[in-house]
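Dear colleague,

Thank you for sharing your sequence with our group. We've completed the structure prediction you requested, and as agreed, I am returning the results in plain text so they can be pasted directly into your records. Please verify that the sequence below matches your submission; if there's any discrepancy, let me know and we will rerun it promptly.
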Amino acid sequence: VQLQASGGGLVQAGGSLRLSCIASGFSDSGLTFSDYAVGWFRQRPGKEREAVAAVTGSGDGTYYTDSVKGRFTISRDNAKETVYLQMNRLKPEDTAVYYCAVDARGTWRGRGTQVTVSS
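Please find the predicted structure tokens below.
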């Protein structure tokens, strides 16, 4: 089972990006994707790993860290086994490697995706 992040890139401050977290291996492992909450995390240079946003398995509950509230939106499509992070009004301090996982320990985390916001 793995959650692979993609969609990062280089963007100017004020711009937008949409990250995708594509799950694989759930059905092969006898697991149901919609049974699991999924979070987006980021690792900024010189900073502790941070939980950015999370969504419940059904998609009806969300969490955002204060610094991204009103700018980022997390959503999921369980039929596609994908979780999205829409990032608007990006700031240079959002520059980080972003990854997705089902918990803060990074369970089933795949390779992250680099987001770079230039000023």
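Summary note from our side: The chain has a mean pLDDT of 96.

Kind regards,
the structure core
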